[in-house]
Design a protein that fits this description.
By secondary structure, the protein is mostly helical. It contains 2 helices and no strands.
């Protein structure tokens, strides 16, 4: 079954980057750390989520 038939699908793919896991183990996200790899993707993810929720 295609996911698009059952609900909204995120238009972004989060890459497998080591920075994401390292900072998560410290209770942080890549958005909390200056120049962390993947920060742009997570910012786009949150922007999309805010639009979907009308925030």
């Amino acid at each position: 079954m295609r996911l698009i038939k059952v609900g909204h699908v995120m238009p972004l793919e989060v890459p497998l980057l080591e920075d994401i896991h390292v900072y998560a183990e410290q209770g942080l996200s890549v958005l909390d750390v200056a120049k962390a790899s993947g920060a742009e993707v997570f910012e786009a993810l949150w922007d999309h989520t805010a639009r979907e929720l009308d925030l």
